[in-house]
Design brief:
Elements: E1 2-6, H1 10-23, H2 30-36, H3 45-54, E2 58-62, E3 65-74, H4 85-92, E4 95-96, E5 99-100, E6 106-114, H5 123-135, E7 141-147, H6 151-160, E8 163-169, E9 174-181
Parallel strand pairs: 6-7
Antiparallel strand pairs: 1-2, 2-3, 3-6, 4-5, 7-9, 8-9
């Protein structure tokens, strides 16, 4: 039986890191990344603790086993994760419904990952539905960037209701900026 909830202890953060390591870009073959998707940013326990202090992340568990996670990153995370400053700067100039993104209340989906053995069982949807349940009264929407090479992730986000606002290329990759509007 699956349960979606907020992160509540360091052990769960350690489980997130263990799952994250399995899907970091470059850890598996190009074919595996193309088929299963990949993660771009590697976190540390200290960083996850700081992020969780700003806003709780969401996990889905199968009893005591972590089935998946979705990291919550409010705007203040730009100050603790320097690699994300360019992303937040891109948002400064981006418009949505004739308003600057920064004129809205939003947070970034910091990373979402489902353990391979739980894929196709509704865990991804559960993670996002819990985000909506927890945060729709505080934020207007979730926004994030996804590598355009990460087809699995782009398709999964589209099924949830995310829309592509813009694509751009930086020194690392080509990115799709996607947004899920709750209003």
């Amino acid at each position: 039986m699956f349960t979606s909830t907020i992160v509540s202890n360091t052990k769960e953060l350690e489980q997130i890191l263990a799952l994250q390591k399995q899907f970091l870009r470059g850890k598996t073959s190009v074919d595996e990344e193309k088929e299963q998707g990949f993660l771009t940013v590697e976190h540390t326990l200290d960083l996850l603790i700081k992020m969780d202090e700003l806003e709780h992340s969401i996990i889905v568990k199968d009893e005591k086993t972590l089935a998946g996670y979705a990291l919550t990153m409010p705007k203040a995370c730009a100050e603790i994760i320097p690699e994300l400053i360019p992303m937040f700067e891109n948002f400064d100039a981006l418009f949505y419904k004739e308003k600057l993104i920064n004129d809205y209340s939003f947070y970034v989906m910091g990373q979402i990952c489902v353990d391979k053995k739980y894929r196709g069982k509704g865990v991804f949807e559960m993670l996002y539905q819990k985000h909506k349940e927890m945060f729709q009264h505080k934020y207007d929407f979730i926004i994030t960037e996804i590598s355009t090479k990460n087809y699995r992730s782009l398709r999964a986000h589209e099924k949830i209701g995310f829309k592509i606002l813009q694509t751009y290329t930086d020194a690392i990759d080509e990115w799709a900026i996607v947004l899920w509007n709750w209003q």
